[in-house]
Fold:
Amino acid sequence: MTAYEILATNISTLQKLSEASIDVADIKYLEMYRDYTRMAQEGHKMTYIAYYISEEYGINKATFYRIIKKFGQVIVI
Structure:
């Protein structure tokens, strides 16, 4: 399959991702977001979660908060 065929097949999904400013490279943060939601459901404070995940995944806190905000936004399909 060529890059063109993949893009053409998934055009509507890719357009929605682009409109929501979601980069395909953000998939590297999926596991991090799962850990965040698990910890939040367990009742941990946001400050602790930000510190723990920043250390665990080697990212700064600003990146953590940016990803949490981006992944939590509602996208109308």
